[in-house]
Amino acid sequence: MPQRKKDPSVRARANRASTAAVLPADDADSAVIVPDLPRIYDEEGQPRDWLDATLEWWKDLWAAPMAAEYHSSDRHGLFRLAALIDNYWRDPSAKTHSEVRLAQKDYGLTPYDRRRLEWTIEATEKAKTEGAKRRGHASSSEQPDPSADPRLTLVQ
Length: 156
What we know:
Elements (H helix, E strand, L loop, with lengths): L20 E3 L16 E2 L5 E2 L3 H12 L11 H16 L3 H11 L6 H6 L2 E3 L3 H11 L16 H4 L1
Parallel strand pairs: 1-4
Antiparallel strand pairs: 2-3
Helix pairs in contact: 1-2, 2-3
């Protein structure tokens, strides 16, 4: 039978990273300021426009729950990441892809990176209910009933 979980107030250590955060799933109230992408230049020093794919990525980035965690100093790294993504869509290559992958890990843009940063996207009530239904019990926070342990029939 699984041991009952301790109340968080009596645990000796929390073992949580300083970056741990629960990100709201629907952040419509958030006042995240979306910075404008800077002007970019081609190899000859002529200004060029951002590709639509890059602009769409930039819009999605700032609409995501992680955007609330970004500090104003992060925007410079995100500008460089946008330039890498723009270069990737102009001339896809394995080298550019690996640079994008390496640069995006610091901003929690993949599920693995969010887990490493201990960022959890808040589940809606509907998602919690569906998950509990799939697992076969009413609430995901319930402790198992000790009298329902089938192993007890062997010792009684």
